[in-house]
Design brief:
alpha/beta; Alpha/beta knot; five-stranded parallel β-sheet; 9 strands; 30% helix; binds adenine
């Protein structure tokens, strides 16, 4: 799968994609990340990407023209498996099921907004969808895009090894958090690992984990149980 990022801060992404699962998957050729500097699609001396907002108000908006030209040149003859997503706090929320849907795409282009927002014509006539990673306002879409790529990349075939498999995790089982886990030592500062997990009764362990996952969900995320 190929990810594209459209941004005015191309250097931002050297960190997030140079470590761990995403870096390993890139090296193995399981995914590609192409970073595009939005200013390459400006035509003035100052490489302007923003302008004042109609109707007044503080702050600057990102202009539509460079974004439209960029997307049209990255995806000439765009197909339905080339998804274009605008990152904005006004989008529907990103979830594990969004990541699963994106993992089916051939190419995913993430537009990182900056300044006070993006001309609405980008959301209405260019992007397939808007997307927010949570109910808070970041100073730009770059961090959000890195999160979306990380969550999507680890669902791609062959990216995680067997022992890191994604199927058991929180949210993969409809609306439950992952069960709590422990490693050695069996006792640490007087706190012991639950007895049942130290035995070898796998049916009992499965039952115990299902109940522990439910209890943890009730405590931390009752909204998931509805
Ligand atoms: N840009 C600013 N805040 C954002 C958010 N919460 N999600 C996605 N993009 C954003």
């Amino acid at each position: 799968m190929r990810f594209h990022l459209l941004t005015i801060f191309p250097d931002f992404f050297t960190g997030p994609f140079s470590h761990g699962v995403v870096a390993r998957a890139r090296d193995a050729g399981k995914l590609e990340v192409s970073i595009h500097d939005l200013r390459n699609w400006t035509h003035d001396r100052h490489r302007t990407v923003d302008d004042r907002c109609f109707g007044g108000g503080a702050g600057m908006l990102m202009k539509p023209a460079p974004i439209f030209e960029a997307v049209e040149s990255i995806f000439p003859g765009r197909t339905p498996r080339q998804r274009v997503v605008l990152l904005t706090p006004q989008g529907p929320l990103f979830t594990q099921s969004t990541a699963r849907r994106y993992a089916e795409a051939e190419e995913l282009l993430l537009i990182c907004g900056r300044y006070e927002g993006v001309d609405e014509r980008v959301a209405e006539h260019l992007a397939d969808e808007e997307l927010s990673i949570g109910d808070y306002v970041l100073s730009g879409g770059e961090l959000a895009a890195a999160i979306v790529i990380d969550a999507t990349a680890r669902l791609l075939p062959g990216v995680l090894g067997n022992d890191e498999s994604a199927v058991d995790e929180s949210f993969e089982q409809a609306g439950l958090l992952d069960y709590p886990q422990w490693t050695r030592p069996a006792e640490f500062r007087g706190w012991a690992v639950p007895e049942v997990l130290q035995g070898g009764n796998h049916a009992e362990i499965r039952r115990w984990r299902a109940e522990a996952a439910r209890a943890k969900t009730v405590r931390n995320r009752p909204d998931l149980l509805k």
